[in-house]
């Protein structure tokens, strides 16, 4: 794996040299924009609207618009100097993982011990494992300051960048939320039963990116020159009868009953004399 950052974890006066590696990878299928007429990939050109000419990277700086049309400019080195000055993951507090809402989490990194930090690394890892706590830290990566959660994953110390509180939008901004929600007791009972039927231990291996697999199959078919036909999916209708939808959902996920031995066929009932007489009358 490629090292994305080098520095140290600090808690109290303890320094743990570490190297950082990205724990996840983007598996999106990359495609280029193509000119339909000639089949040539399109390129993006940075153009100055005032000078009406292309601009090279060497001629570009960053700017903050503090008033409409007015900017203060920053060179890359100026911004980099703010983060380069502090190559440290500074643990501020230790908390319980359950106290952090998942909305705060951004991206996960694995931390490996530096060339001389194996002993301190192992000490921090085992202390965190036995305490059951995770560290809340500050870190600067690629000119961006971030909060981070330091925790143990198996035999590795991991860091998950998390949003600052003022980066989380208030739920009050979400439109059309019901103010005084009311639910039908019977529907609620059935909904809870459905949740119970669908509840299972989390097994990440069972989940697959179906869309990516379909795109890869389609790419292989196009490369092979095959004709592609995509079957249209059945249109889903709006739920009108919520109770009926819940009932049908429960029936669909209900575990199959154990088959039993077929019972002996019951003897046919004897016809009553009166009925028989009536049937024989011509």
From TrEMBL:
A Gene Ontology BP annotation from the UniProt entry: DNA recombination
One of the record's GO molecular function terms: double-stranded DNA binding
Keywords: DNA damage, DNA recombination, DNA repair, DNA-binding
SUPFAM superfamilies referenced in this protein's UniProt entry, alphabetically: SPOC domain-like (SSF100939)
Region (Disordered): 253-282
Biased composition (Basic residues): 271-282
Record carries keyword DNA repair: yes
This protein's record includes keyword DNA repair: yes
Residues covered by the Ku domain: 52-179
Superkingdom to which the source organism belongs: Bacteria
Signal peptide positions (record): none
A Pfam family annotated for this UniProt entry: Ku
Low complexity composition bias: residue spans: 261-270
Subunit record text: Homodimer. Interacts with LigD.
HAMAP family the record matches: Prokaryotic_Ku
Family: Belongs to the prokaryotic Ku family.
Its biological purpose: With LigD forms a non-homologous end joining (NHEJ) DNA repair enzyme, which repairs dsDNA breaks with reduced fidelity. Binds linear dsDNA with 5'- and 3'- overhangs but not closed circular dsDNA nor ssDNA. Recruits and stimulates the ligase activity of LigD.
PANTHER family: NON-HOMOLOGOUS END JOINING PROTEIN KU
Protein name per Swiss-Prot or TrEMBL: Non-homologous end joining protein Ku
Source organism per UniProt: Paenibacillus oceani
Gene: ku
